[in-house]
């Protein structure tokens, strides 16, 4: 199954945000649930092996959009061999804000999934982007998943500087159970918090210090952002730790 | 080694750079106390920096900071990955980086002291790192240690035998130590001290000041002589209050 | 790919960079590497590495993540140093070095790891410039005065020493596991032969990582160089099936020409955005925990 959904905002004449385009393409179904807020509603199981799903998000300058999902996404193997994929391309315009806070992605046994996110940020755009991955349903060995996340900040001349490039591989013999990668965790989560408030000090040659706690860290990036990262035994603990890390990331914002 | 002081370093910066003085020796012999004493005595007349190589990152550096003998910013701690001798001899990159960082931040400096982590009798500084080196022993290790030799004892530019006040308590014969050290050191100097009793370690400080003066004579003082903040136009630091240097060997009576 | 740029040619007697590779990868290279445990010290302190079995899993995971990423960056740096330097183009080249270093930044979320990587890079550059003086190393030093990331310097040093990108990648992958292995021997008193057996078992994976790193140099698919703010965010999806985007995608048209002419400046760096960025969340946590621990023996 191939599906392409699209979300586009525009500035309302009286100020504020208007949903200019909201194009669902089952199983990617979009529902407006508030001003500037959209929920992804799963209509049908999956993604299943062979499914190729894509979501485009365009947050116009000065507008703000929040995307959530109604429930966790369960990635399943298909009846035919083949990867499933979910691709999100999002760009956030000048002065715009995007909050992407879906429920976790659960990797069922035997799945083979690919998640790709490309995020393009205008120089003074703000983004909060959360991803949570659960390694299998209860007591289940997870299938395979490869995620790739690319976030780039563009300056006013259009030149881009990479903010974060990360691959995560789950269900791989080399990394699973490695104390270097996930340890004995069954879930991994990260939230990128980025925007002008997380700029490095102009004269700051030294790295900003991270905040850490049990199983989580808020990691100031080299560019204008903080990556909150957490590992946990289950989805509930993961969310709790990730929220702590997100709070810490918010505290790392600078006052200008 | 002490006789060969041709410079194997990359060319010194214009106007010279600081003399780099390594201080090594076994654990507990009093290296950090000596560094503190040198800072106390030389600090008023020389521009100093200190690099420590403790087993654990900051122990020695913290000791020096607490002692209040030098601006804490001028102390840098280097981690040695369990191998203190590697960091001063086989792979000196981190120590050189620390020395140069100090010179960059606070330079020009006259003297940078690099204190090694406590090690064994074979540990010596690479001449790529230290222009001159002091090896510190103490009498409580027994009066046979100098006879055993080892590169530190035999080849350091200065051998300091510390804690002479303990000699009667541990039954160490300073005359024996002095004779044995002289035999293996081919005339290179040995000084006996008790830093616990002489907080200024004046004899060692005097030796170090002479080394700095000789370094200036050879390379020019760091920065320009006329800009030297302490006004030693002849390029010689001197210490009006210092007593005469101890005669060597200066066995305590 | 041609063997000049990737070193895969099987020449009897090997290539000119072979001996230099041994020097570059040797743990005795005086460039400060002996004081880095790559997270192993903190893992030992926390009890997640207690024996050879834990260490084996640690090393395998480290190689598949940080090892692969550093191998790819080193290969890219080696390629840039080999092909990019032409008199009078130092300015362009400095920009390219800064771009590659920024790619390393974007793949290193942990500030403690960035700091350790830059420190190691600075020390290696100091050593390499004296061992293998070269314009590329000089330009790199000027372009990133605070110290470029270690794999970037390693790749440039490898080029200066006469190595090809594959060899640079291999050296990077190798040092990514030997540092922690040696640290574990010192910290846990493990049998050194047992630990070297683990490293021997990893040898095929080291080769694979170096090959994958070089393959990633010519597998560029993500094309971030155009300003996507000026185009439809879904534009890519309309040109090809959604999901065909990313390092495993099938779009070969945007790949730089394999073995493209030296000095093909504008092409250089086009593939960098797609280089692997394999993250290891546990290593990030270990690095930050290590930085906060005052009682440490290693820099990282």
UniProtKB/TrEMBL annotation, chain B:
In what residue span(s) does the CobW/HypB/UreG nucleotide-binding domain sit? Answer: 21-191
Q: Where does GTP bind?
A: 25-32
Molecular function via GO: GTP binding; GTPase activity; nickel cation binding
What is a single cellular component term in the Gene Ontology annotation? cytoplasm
Q: Where is the composition biased (Basic and acidic residues)?
A: 224-241
Q: Which SUPFAM superfamilies match?
A: P-loop containing nucleoside triphosphate hydrolases (SSF52540)
Question: Which Gene Ontology terms describe the biological processes this protein takes part in?
Answer: urea catabolic process
| Record has GTP-binding as a keyword | yes
What does this protein's UniProt record list under function? Facilitates the functional incorporation of the urease nickel metallocenter. This process requires GTP hydrolysis, probably effectuated by UreG.
Could you say which protein family the record assigns here?
Answer: Belongs to the SIMIBI class G3E GTPase family. UreG subfamily.
Quaternary structure, per UniProt, is: Homodimer. UreD, UreF and UreG form a complex that acts as a GTP-hydrolysis-dependent molecular chaperone, activating the urease apoprotein by helping to assemble the nickel containing metallocenter of UreC. The UreE protein probably delivers the nickel.
Tell me the protein's name: Urease accessory protein UreG
From TrEMBL, chain C:
An annotated Gene Ontology molecular function? nickel cation binding
Annotated stretches, region: Disordered: 229-272
Please give an example of a GO cellular component term from this record. Answer: cytoplasm
Bias-annotated ranges (Low complexity): 252-265
List, alphabetically, the InterPro entries matched: UreF, UreF_sf
Give the top-rank taxon of the lineage listed in the UniProt record for this protein: Bacteria
Gene3D superfamilies noted in UniProt: Urease accessory protein UreF
**Main localisation:** cytoplasm
**Protein's cellular compartments:** Cytoplasm
Which keywords are on file for this protein? Answer: Chaperone, Cytoplasm, Nickel insertion
Homology family: Belongs to the UreF family.
* Subunit details: UreD, UreF and UreG form a complex that acts as a GTP-hydrolysis-dependent molecular chaperone, activating the urease apoprotein by helping to assemble the nickel containing metallocenter of UreC. The UreE protein probably delivers the nickel.
HAMAP family (UniProt xref): UreF (MF_01385)
Q: What protein does this entry describe?
A: Urease accessory protein UreF
| Gene source species | Microbispora oryzae
Gene name of the encoded protein = ureF
